[in-house]
Design brief:
Mean pLDDT of chain A: 94
Strand order of the largest sheet of chain A: 2-3-1-4-5
Oligomer: heterodimer
Structural class of chain B: alpha/beta
Largest sheet of chain B: 5 strands, mixed
Distance between the termini of chain A: 38 Å
Radius of gyration of chain B: 25 Å
Number of helices of chain A: 7
Helix content of chain B: 40-55%
Number of strands of chain B: 16
Largest interface: A-B, 66 and 82 residues
Radius of gyration of chain A: 18 Å
Chain lengths: 161, 584
């Protein structure tokens, strides 16, 4: 096993054995892994199975069921555009369209060089400020297509937002 | 060990310092809607500008007053004055607020929104004259926007944990259940089942371990009242959960929230920590014989995890697929132990009910719908926000008088209520009273309280395609009529909305929908056809124009449709994975 792999495994072990909530389950362990790494590598499936005394199949079943889990590293930054009905009625589609064009994407996914991950979220929970986007989990409401791409460009130049 | 009286004395002193002390007290609503309006940046600006000027002030992050349209709202209490609220504040406005109002007592008119208190402030309206505030009757959200959730003493100063103290020392467990029954509180998760009765089911279930589960999953797009309570006043919720634990003889409680909603999660976890530190949770609560533990359980992205048996699967760490009933949760729920599940809002009414009596609550509201309803107005509406109103108000009062109808002089066209499965209803629903039985009788769902308004330019067919795509994306896959049916319905709706429908497509929808209704275990499949069905009932012509004339009467021409795709492991991720490998 390579050093990088062993290092990854150790980070997973740390994340899942240091969970702060008392009830530890397959799901809580997977969430802890994704919080730490941003995705679920194969090593994590094995570690989570071992910790929870569950089968590899069960862990894969849970990981592939919940739609937030991903199995490849995400981009350095994550932009989510709210796709829910409240946002839809006040212009989310235009924001999605403009952002996709700006990033050179056809659908959700990563930009070249894994700089940025774009996702549609079914509801970001700030519907009264629709349309809403989130940049690295920080919500921005009353969005326009122009402001969205300006904010995204701002991440690129500053590395912050 | 701290007793309630000691806590209360300490809290009252603290509250007096805040409200009648020397320092200005500034409250900024930073719950999700505030955050999206830039309130976090405003808080940071306030703190740094105060520091730069060497002005001593208390700056607190609070929850929502409901008027999301006016956010970021900055609420300034100066010594000896009424509270003055500033609306739509940006970090650039902060120096003006400090230099003009806090230092020089001049009111910047362009930013001032309203005052709240006994002393009028010149040229500014009374908040109680603004319908978005005055038409609210706040019970579950009575503290939201007024107190800082991170400061347990502020909650205690405002009667917090008084109900728990009363229950522990003056009431038997059964008295609490009787009070809940008298209150006629019905579950606010959507079904409207009497809460007192539900609690009573678990009393005789065998222990020793019994659970209380609080459902804060709130996956309905357009509903955010649970998250607003979690963020605005988590102690009210906790107190309600502890009361339920005492009444039912439970030992452990879970607050179930979707991961990623950091604001609600962090605030409720802070509240739990503070409650433990003050002997309001844990062993021998407030010196009594009653012990109870509460923790947060997170779910991944899954709409069906909001279904009560799906929720239990998720807390146990499994896929959130609904279970067969019976057994019912009161007999065998979490880890097959007795469990009582209620929605965030339901628990949040309990402290006031125990404090003021069930009869007091039963007199608020209308008919068999006691208390208040918490409506989230969004979409094409002038004053989007989250408004707690007395049950019995009409939908029209809420949407027109509080919400201000559709903006920009447009006419309203439809309402989308009850979450994605609730479908759309026409404007005749404006005459309906918010009353569980009246709404249900009329085929409308109030559900979780999300009311999304569509104006005359909005395409019903376009929105229905989105709702169907949501339901397809979120089908858990357990029941094939739902899994395959939703996929078929989405195919059909994509054809209709994309101007490629064939004759008979609408009939096909109805056939698929009927199969789903009959053959699915939970509401997701049973109601999965409801978005289309409800829209066909009210807007059939619009569908027929799509099918027959290949055009959208609202003038929408684009056929492009974006929707989220579930991220599934790619085939290469499975390399080296041995199926059925068991861990020793």
């Amino acid at each position: 096993m390579t050093v990088a792999k062993e290092d990854l495994r150790e980070r997973v072990r740390q994340a899942i054995t240091n969970q702060k909530r008392p009830t530890v389950t397959v799901l809580s362990s997977l969430l802890a892994t994704q919080d730490e790494l941003g995705y679920i590598p194969d090593e994590a499936i094995h570690e989570v199975a071992a910790l929870n005394e569950e089968s590899i199949n069960e862990v894969w079943g849970v990981a592939s069921f919940y739609k937030n889990f991903r199995f490849t590293p995400p981009g350095e930054h994550t932009v989510e555009i709210c796709w829910g009905p409240s946002c839809h009625l006040v212009g989310a589609t235009a924001i999605i369209e403009k952002t996709l064009g700006h990033l050179g994407l056809e659908a959700e996914g990563e930009t070249t060089g894994n700089k940025l991950t774009l996702r549609y979220n079914t509801c970001l929970g700030a519907c009264a400020q629709a349309p809403v986007i989130s940049i690295d989990h920080h919500l921005r409401g009353r969005m326009t297509p122009e402001r969205a791409v300006a904010l995204i460009d701002n991440i690129d130049t500053n590395g912050t937002h | 060990m701290s007793t309630y009286q000691e806590l209360k004395t300490q809290a009252d002193t603290h509250w007096q310092e805040l409200t009648q002390g020397e320092k200005p007290w500034i409250r900024v609503g930073t719950e999700l809607n505030g955050q999206a309006a830039g309130a976090v940046e405003v808080v940071n600006a306030l703190r740094s500008e105060f520091a730069a000027r060497n002005i001593e002030a208390t700056v607190d992050e609070v929850g929502t007053l409901g008027m999301s349209y006016a956010e970021a709202l900055v609420d300034v209490l100066k010594p000896g004055k009424s509270r003055l609220l500033f609306q739509r504040v940006t970090p650039e406005d902060v120096p003006t607020i400090i230099d003009e109002y806090i230092v020089n007592d001049r009111v910047p008119k362009n930013l001032a929104f309203a005052y709240l208190g006994d002393e009028p402030i010149d040229g500014v309206p009374d908040l109680n004259s603004i319908p978005q505030y005055s038409m609210q009757r706040r019970i579950a959200m009575r503290n939201a926007g007024h107190i800082a959730p991170s400061d347990i003493l502020q909650y205690i100063a405002n009667d917090g944990y008084a109900a728990l103290n009363k229950a522990l020392y003056e009431m038997k467990a059964n008295d609490v259940i009787d009070e809940m029954k008298t209150s006629n509180l019905r579950g606010r998760g959507g079904a409207g089942f009497p809460a007192g009765l539900k609690w009573s089911f678990m009393v005789n279930s065998p222990g020793p371990v019994k659970y209380i589960a609080c459902n804060g999953e709130e996956g309905d797009p357009g509903a955010f009242n649970d998250k607003a309570i979690l963020e605005s006043d988590p102690h009210t919720l906790l107190e309600g959960i502890i009361l339920a634990g005492y009444a039912t003889g439970a030992t452990n409680g879970y607050v179930f929230v979707r991961h990623g909603h950091d604001g609600p999660i962090d605030r409720v976890e802070q509240a739990i920590k503070d409650a433990y530190a003050n002997n309001l949770l844990g062993k021998n609560i407030l010196g009594s014989d009653f012990s109870f533990d509460v923790e947060v359980a997170l779910t991944g992205d899954s709409y069906v995890a909001g279904e009560e048996t799906g929720l239990m699967e998720a807390i146990e760490g499994k896929r959130s697929m609904p279970r067969f009933k019976p057994p019912f949760p009161a007999a065998a729920g979490l880890w097959m132990k007795p469990t009582t599940i209620n929605n965030v809002k339901t628990f949040s009414y309990a402290p006031q009910i125990i404090l003021n009596g069930g009869e007091w609550f039963s007199k608020i509201g209308v008919n068999k719908s006691s208390g208040t309803a918490i409506a989230c107005l969004t979409g094409n509406v002038t004053y989007p926000g989250i408004y707690e109103v007395e049950m019995g108000a009409t939908m029209g009062e809420v949407i027109n008088e509080i919400g201000g109808g559709a903006p920009n002089g447009k006419a309203m066209k439809f309402l989308q209520t009850g979450g994605p499965l609730g479908g759309v209803i026409g404007l005749d629903a404006l005459d309906l009273h918010i009353d569980f039985d009246e709404m249900q009788g009329a085929g409308a769902m109030f559900g979780s309280g999300g009311i999304i308004i569509g104006d005359e330019d909005a395409s019903v067919v376009d929105l229905i395609r989105l709702l169907v795509a949501f339901c397809q994306y979120e089908s858990c896959g357990k029941c094939f009529p739902c899994r395959l049916g939703m996929t078929q319905l989405l195919d059909l709706m994509e054809r209709v909305a994309g101007f490629e429908a064939r004759p008979g497509d609408l009939d096909a929808c109805e056939r698929v929908g009927m199969t789903m209704k009959l053959g699915s275990l939970c509401a997701h499949g049973q109601l999965g056809f409801n978005p289309i069905n409800s829209a066909l009932k009210h807007f059939r012509e619009e569908f027929e124009t799509h099918v027959n004339e290949k055009r959208d009467p609202t003038g929408r021409t684009s056929t492009k449709f974006y929707s989220p795709k579930a991220s599934r492991p790619y085939a290469e991720d499975f390399k080296g994975v041995q199926p059925l490998e068991l861990v020793k």
